[in-house]
Design brief:
The complex is a heterodimer of chains A (308) and B (303). Chain A has 308 residues and is mainly alpha-helical. In chain A, 78% of the residues lie in helices and 0% in strands. Chain B has 12 helices and no strands. The chains are: A mainly alpha (308), B mainly alpha (303). Chains A and B meet through helix 1, helix 6, helix 7, helix 10 and helix 11 of A and helix 6, helix 7, helix 10 and helix 12 of B.
């Protein structure tokens, strides 16, 4: 039991260090950007007014004090007010989080549902034309830039074929192209990984035994291979879900999807730093919580990684 | 991967043990593929250098009467526009050719920045061990644990997009790859007798690292750098596409895809051609990295 707690504590410590590092980088970058006060006031504001705002924002204090205050506020979800939306940055970001989660989960689900069967099929029919075609497409999918895939999908499936709308959020058919774009990289990686994981297991002795018993190949794969091949797939899949967060920035921008990725890009254009800061911070937290959950889940799945 | 580095002649032996080489015909095929990939990169570099002579037209010259022209051999202005013209009447082919310059300059510069930083920190962590090692690896893990594009967006968004910022940000995004690979290799090399022997003879740590460790890890460094080049080129295009990288009117593939986005319906060629060239470059360079790894250092496969 003590081992398990130590294991969790080490993981948690790592996650906290990561959050702290990201927060500090964000703070330093924000301070490097110079004085935000002239941005907040009309250009003809008198110096006394600038001084007043600077004092109000705590910018006249020494840097270490500012840093502590920033960390304290961030912990309470207080990132200041958005100059563009005229409300707290936190609630601006929170309003758009559901759209991003909807897109991310759909892309992730789509990637799993398509990639795992394809990877298994490729492994069973290894070196067949089916396998070679599937892995060829997967290789292209892994190296294709997300933003260009999105453009290609819009051009072919939306403008030429007319099957899906080009942008926006609404009914389910608005979701298909963004989810496909966002999920493409994960889909390709998961398919390749599933193939190699299944092939690894197929080489093992108990599979030979199962075959020697006269079980048909399908039963061998379904009953004996799948469970054992699941472990590496789960790990990488979890990591993939994290990279989806980064890809969301690009995908949301292309498809005008009203999530936090597009918000981040728009806020940069608006010089709305409070919102940028809050988005980056929130994504970091989300990502790290997710990785922590995957580590736990992995421990549940595989007794070997559990410390004794 | 530690134990797979043999005791003597470390630079050559891993290759001799690799399945690709043992396979004879398979190794020859891999070698040929690596050479083909290398030729592709060299060709791309030559195109970038010779862009002013190769490009049929000035990539910045606007011809408003010839806007959104289809790919054709004889346009209204009497010139050939093999890949069409864009929304300002500029020749797409010429812009794609000039775009090679941006992609490769940023790509190679970023690989250099990331490689020098990552290799130094990796060697430091592996050679010194202890506290330095913990610090470097904790930072590396933290960075790996975070979708870097968000951080890049934050940094560039605040500092403003510029050529040096772009190179530094893309370079910084890649240092972890080098550091992790080199650290684990140096860790093994350091414990070998020849290091003790050199120390006993009065050789300094710097001498050991420069004369004996660096040559031994060079092949891994080349593999990582090739894979990083593909990543850097795609990241540059992505950031430029988002408006955070190269600024118009400089021709960059990412900028071109972005500019053509509004005209997808009427002029598909503006976005498609630079995008296809980018996709091809990314595919070939990253595959070349994979093949190179199979050939030089199969122990890296797990990374």
């Amino acid at each position: 039991m003590r081992g398990v707690i130590g294991f969790l504590a080490a993981k948690l410590l790592r996650a906290l260090v990561a959050v702290w590092l990201v927060t500090t980088v964000v703070f330093v970058v924000m301070r490097l950007s110079g004085d935000p006060v002239p941005l907040l006031l009309p250009p003809d504001a008198p110096t006394s007014e600038m001084e007043r705002v600077r004092r109000e924002l705590g910018l006249d204090r020494p840097l270490p004090v500012q840093y502590l205050k920033f960390v304290g506020n961030a912990l309470r979800g207080d990132f200041g007010r958005s100059i563009h939306f005229r409300e707290p940055a936190w609630s601006v970001v929170m309003d758009r989080l559901p759209a991003t989660l909807e897109l991310g989960l759909t892309a992730f689900g789509l990637a799993l549902v398509v990639a795992v069967p394809i990877g298994m099929l490729s492994a069973i029919k290894r070196n067949s034309p089916v396998d070679q075609a599937a892995m060829g497409v997967a290789l292209i999918g892994q190296s294709a830039p997300t933003f260009f895939l999105g453009i290609l999908f819009i051009l072919t499936l939306s403008l030429w074929a007319g099957w899906f709308p080009t942008s926006g959020r609404g009914s389910w058919d608005h979701l298909v192209l963004p989810a496909l774009t966002l999920g493409a990289f994960s889909m390709a990686s998961i398919a390749r990984l599933t193939r190699s994981a299944v092939l690894d297991v197929l080489r093992q002795d108990f599979v030979r035994t199962a075959r020697a018993k006269g079980l048909p190949e399908v039963a061998v794969v379904m009953k004996h291979t799948l469970k054992n091949a699941a472990l590496p797939v789960v790990t990488i899949t979890g990591l993939q879900f994290g990279t989806l967060l980064g890809g969301a920035v690009v995908t949301e921008t292309i498809f005008a999807w009203p999530g936090i990725g597009r918000l981040a890009i728009q806020s940069i254009a608006n010089r709305d730093y409070a919102v940028v800061q809050c988005t980056v911070f929130l994504s970091a937290i989300l990502f790290i919580v997710l990785n922590f959950a995957i580590d736990l889940f992995y421990g549940v799945l595989d007794p070997r990684v559990r410390p004794r | 991967m530690a134990s797979s580095i043999p005791v003597s002649v470390p630079a050559e032996l891993p290759a001799a043990e690799s399945p690709a080489v043992r396979g004879g015909a398979g190794a020859r095929r891999t070698r040929r593929l690596v050479i083909a990939g290398g030729c592709f990169v060299v060709a791309l570099t030559l195109i970038a250098v010779a862009a002013p002579w190769l490009a049929p037209q000035d990539p910045l010259r606007q011809t408003l009467r010839g806007r959104l022209g289809k790919p054709t051999l004889a346009a209204a202005d009497g010139k050939a526009h093999l890949l069409g013209t864009d929304h300002l009447g500029r020749d797409v082919l010429s812009r794609v050719i000039f775009g090679t310059r941006v992609s490769l300059t940023v790509g190679f510069a970023a690989v250099l920045v990331g490689g020098i930083l990552g290799a130094s920190l990796g060697i430091l962590a592996g050679y010194r061990g202890g506290f330095a090692d913990s610090v470097v690896m904790t930072v590396a893990d933290a960075q790996l644990a975070f979708p870097f594009i968000l951080l890049a967006i934050g940094i560039i968004g605040v500092l403003g997009p510029s050529f040096p910022t772009l190179i530094v940000v893309i370079g910084l995004s890649g240092w972890v790859g080098y550091a992790r690979v080199l650290r684990s290799q140096v860790l093994v090399l350091r414990s070998r007798e020849f290091v003790d022997a050199i120390h006993a003879l009065g050789g300094s740590a710097g001498r050991v690292i420069l004369r004996h460790i660096l040559p031994n890890v060079l092949s891994s460094l080349v593999v990582v750098a090739t894979l990083e080049l593909a990543r850097a080129i795609v990241l540059e295009a992505t950031l430029s596409f988002l408006g955070l990288g190269i600024q118009p009117p400089t021709p960059s593939w990412g900028v071109m895809v972005q500019e053509g986005r509004e005209y997808l319906d009427s002029a598909w060629w503006i976005s498609t051609f630079p995008g296809v060239v980018l996709m091809l470059t990314s595919l070939v360079v990253s595959r070349t990295g994979d093949w190179l790894r199979d050939l030089l250092d199969p122990t890296l496969r797990g990374e």
